Amino acid sequence: MKALHRKLLREIWQLKGQGMAIAVMVAAGVAMYVMSFTTLEALRHSQRSVYEEQEFADVFVALKRAPEAVVERLRAIDGVALADTRVIAPLNMPMAAADKPVTGLAISIPDGEQPVLNRLYLKSGQLPLAGSQNEVVVSEAFAEVWQLEPGDRLPVVINGRYQELLVSGTAISPEYIYQIRPGDLFPDFSRYAILWLNRPALEAAFDMQGAFNHVVLRLAAGASEAAVINAADVLLEPWGALGAHGRDEQLSHRYLDQELAQLESMAYLLPLLFIGVAAFLLNVVAARLISTQREQVAVLKAFGYSGGSVALHYLLLMAGMVLAGALLGIVAGTWLASVIAGIYQDYFRFPWLDFTLRPAVALAATAIAGAATLVGTLGAVTRAYRLHPAEAMRPPAPARFRTSLLERAGLTWLSQPSRIIWRNLERQAVKSLLSVLGIALAVAMVMLTAFQGAAIDHMMDVQFRLAQRQDLTLSLNEAEARRALFELAALPGVSRVEGFRAVPAVLRLGHREYRGSVQGMEPGQDLARVLDADLRPITLPPDGLLLTDHLADMLSAQPGDTLEVQVLDGERPLLRIPVAGLVTEYIGVGAYMQLAALARHLGEDERINGAHLAIDMQQREALDARLAAMPAIAGTTFREDVITAFEDMMDETLLVFTLFSMLLAGSIAFAVVYNNARITWAERNRELASLRVLGFHQHEVAWILLGELLVLTLLAILPGFLIGQAFCRILTEGMKTDLFRVPLVLDAGTYGMAVLVVMVASLLSALILLRALVKLDMVTALKR
Amino acid sequence: MNATPAVFRTRGLTRVYRMGEVEIHALRGVDLDLYSGEFVVLLGASGSGKSTLLNILGGLDRPSSGDVWYREQLLSSASERELTQFRRQHVGFVFQFYNLIPSLTALENVAIVTDIAEAPLPPREALALVGLDQRADHFPAQLSGGEQQRVAIARAVAKNPAVLLCDEPTGALDSTTGIRVLEVLQDLNQRLGTTTVVITHNAVISDMAQRTIRLSDGQASSVSYNDKVLRPDQLHW
User: Fold this and answer.
1) CA-based nearest residue in chain B for residue A686
2) pLDDT in tens, A426-444
3) Pairing of strands A135-139, A192-198
4) Which of B84, B104, B141 minimises the CB distance to A416?
5) What is the rounded CA–CA span in Å between residue A44 and residue A49?
6) Which chain A residues contact residue B105 at CB under 8 A?
7) CA–CA dist B119, A693 (Å, integer)
8) Whether B61 and A779 lie within 8 Å, measured CB to CB
9) Residue B4 DSSP SS3
């Protein structure tokens, strides 16, 4: 081995403390990068392959009822490659052990066969036999919760008739990778099932013989989705179609796509942050190392080593740390990706997950880390390259100092030790600024991690304690006169009832449109309220729509604009309704107006198709039983259940994520502070030894050493808060979807946590330095 | 010959270092008395043990065996804290490489010692003693080597120490500048009566001492007295 290489290895070993800090930073960045992109790729790739192999449809249309013969006309539409009709119907499932109502969606498959589109991926068992009236394939997630296996019996109420079905198999459909009940925020697999039955069985149960109420289309290659949707809308309008839509409006697909988009926005932000900090640390360490080794560099050059080989030597030294970190990061990242993908699997039920570490991801991560090394060490390495041997042989001249800004500003009463601290900070202004920046980044990282919990709490608080204060929301199968509310008010435990009318509609302004609904509400609502920008409840204006602020953004709409509202129900009128104002909502988006105004626009009497109820939760079971027996009621959502489901999900995902990120943020803080402390120590121990010789006690010298650390840390807190706010803003903007928006809420706890983590990191570094200080040998320190 | 009690007394002083696997006997039983107001030169070649002796006298190091007293205080069994206090109150150090704090001006380098001493000279007065009161606001980087060493001497005497310990004070200086520094030391010794110990390998310097102790192989090999003490400007090297 060449002597220079041996020197390299020994020095890597000597620098192990700082080297490890750098390697951990690089590892953190690389791990996050590998984790995010591997997860992203795994999910994307699985989505693609599942969609392809299971023939996920391109266009979806729900309608009232159309004769089967219409399908031929659908197939004839230019651009349609395949069309598949189905019967879909909701059903209730009186599961014996259920403490809450269980509902499901029955979907027809051709008699004993796989459908042409949205093919089922059987996890167990088989499809119902041809001709079977009572066999059913159950969605895998539901079967898992209820431990259903082929051969088990399943009670259902289909169209008011109790029936026992026989489970023939369990399956996953590309249509229900995210299996959520419409209107819910999160999937609850124990309370919502998808059931696939033979078409003749469902036709018989719902009086749909020779007819269908749902159709899915596959587009021909190169066909225009918009054109096909238009043609299908025109063709199916007489059959009560609610409007055709593409995958972008398909619930499962939309959730998955938005989740992937969120993941992607995180995938860039965090890893780059970590690798940036690593580059910064490398810069500091490399500069310090090369300046302490001036004489060695000079000797090497005097012996005839070229500037290039000396520069390469130091570059390799740094690369060693980075590479070690990158390797660690790739291993950790791959492992973490499998953990994260596992958590995703709990919510997004892919039939299979194509999970591999792609070399390209690992290479990209290593390349980014390598580039960071170059950027971080270039300055210092160039100095080594340029250093003249003769110049380097002379000891460096005493560093130049001047009185500090503080003193020039009039703070002349500073003690000598304080002067030493300030003048050192100012003399190495760039280094000090970089250190402050590094610590500020750590503060920001902690904030980025800590704020999410508080912000989500706030989001839930606004949603469920300020806006939607009802205990229970009911939806009715048909719109009914308002007197139906009296019946509801008479139910056990009900203390207040507020009716609403939700009309499915496409809201349009210029070329932008959004498929959602318009909700007519009673003006004096006290349970379900809408809030202004300051989260104060507002009264609905006599006319005009109140739009969720995010919906207004999506439509580029402002108060005063007039929206085109294409109603997708009943007579399907095309309305023009002005925007009267905006409301703040963090979960979902909506368009709200007075019930009376909506009725006026629709040209109908005031009718309702849902109600918000305040109830005595003690009587929930009795109420549940009564509601289950009312055929007019299509569905119930208890606020309590939504909150529980949400909290369960958060406990599982956010906690893991938060712990992990907090650890990383803490290690950034420690790495920055510790490196800074090491360097201060290396540069100053001779000076500190001199002070000890002159009769300074250890604690007095410690103040000079640690005071600098303290000043840097304190200086970093405010900029850290500002950077943290910016990071949090970027994150919340990146995560904005029409499903939910995490509000930018930074409470005292978030700031406090950031300060705490950085202070603990500083304290740990301080303790390590104090240990070195206690062991400081005055005699040896003076010899150098 | 000296009626006053000794400022320092050492008896059977030894110091053994362990350098990796090798034991180095830096001092092998040194008996020594230093008296108030004396100007003593400890002369020896490199490795003779003179720096080790100075470090022990100055409370920077402890002997492996044997005893060292400063007046009535037994330094060889003093705690770290007591040694620090001892250095703070009674010892002025001057080093070969000055060891000034680069971030403090000449005046502040003196003040950093007077701030913690019991009955110090005013810092400016200490600088005036070494003829540098005009350069009080200069930083070390703005001073020549000789000037830096004079600041170091001012810093050492400013606390009114009982003893001034100088380790090769002229070692990093040319002879003209070195002589200027020695003049300052002699002047202060005569004016303030501070016991002054200079260790050096430069035999010429012993001509300005009242007493010269030669060290070799960790032992005081000879002691000589000067009948006629020379002024530094009479020295040549």
Assistant:
1) B99
2) 877 877 887 888 888 888 8
3) antiparallel
4) B104
5) 9
6) 403
7) 18
8) yes
9) coil
What is residue A306's DSSP assignment? -
B84 with A692: Cβ contact below 8 A: yes
Identify the CA nearest to A375 among candidates A268, A291, A270, A281: A281
Of A727, A37, A35, A649, nearest to A450 by C-alpha is A727
With an 8 Å Cβ cutoff, are A398 and B102 in contact?
Answer: yes
List all residues 6 or more positions away from A730 whose beta carbon is below 8 Å from its beta carbon: A269
C-alpha dihedral over A527, A533, A535, A539, to 10 degrees? -40
Q: Which residues are A475's β-sheet partners?
A: A610, A635
Tens-digit pLDDT profile for residues A262-318? 788 777 777 777 777 777 777 777 777 777 777 777 777 777 777 787 888 888 888
ipTM > 0.90, yes or no: no
Contact check, Cβ <8 Å, A695/B113:
yes
Q: Which residues pair with B39 in a beta bridge?
A: B196
A interface test, pick of B83, B84, B103 with most A CB neighbours within 10 Å = B103
- A492: its two tokens: 């056990």
**A692 close to B84: Cβ distance less than 8 angstroms:** yes
Q: Which of residues 762-781 of A touch B (CB under 8 A)?
A: 778-779
Nearest to B182 by CA among B129, B232, B228: B232
Of all residues in chain B, the one with the smallest CA distance to A401 is: B103
For residue A419, list chain B residues with Cβ-Cβ distance below 8 A. 103-104, 108
Distance CA A152, CA A136 (A): 10
B22 in a structural domain:
no
Give the N- to C-terminal CA distance of chain A in Å, as an integer.
31
Tabulate helix, strand, coil % of chain B (nearest 5): 35, 30, 35
Between residues A357 and B1, the one the model is more confident about: A357
C-alpha span between A236 and A74 (Å, rounded): 9
Q: CB-hemisphere CA count at 13 Å for B6? A: 14
Render pLDDT for B41-53 as a digit per residue (tens, 0 to 9).
Answer: 999 988 888 888 9
B38 touches B93 (CB < 8 A): no
Beta bridge partners of B212: B41, B224
Decide if B122 is inside a domain: yes
Residue B141 lies in a domain: yes
Computed over every residue of chain A, the mean pLDDT equals: 86
Range of the domain at B187: 36-61+80-234
Structure tokens, B173: 């200086």
> What's the total number of domains in chain B?
1
What CATH number corresponds to the domain at position B216?
A: 3.40.50.300
Do B237 and B175 meet the contact criterion of CB atoms below 8 Å apart?
Answer: yes
Residue A454 and residue A684 in contact, taking contact as beta carbons nearer than 8 Å: no
Domain assignment present for B19 = no
Lookup: tokens for A410: 């009039």
Would you kindly state where each structural domain of chain A is located, as residue ranges? 1-56+251-395, 89-200, 416-469+639-784, 494-615
Distance from CA of A767 to the nearest CA of B (A): 20
- Among the listed residues A211, A206, A215, A207, the one whose alpha carbon sits nearest the alpha carbon of residue A235: A215
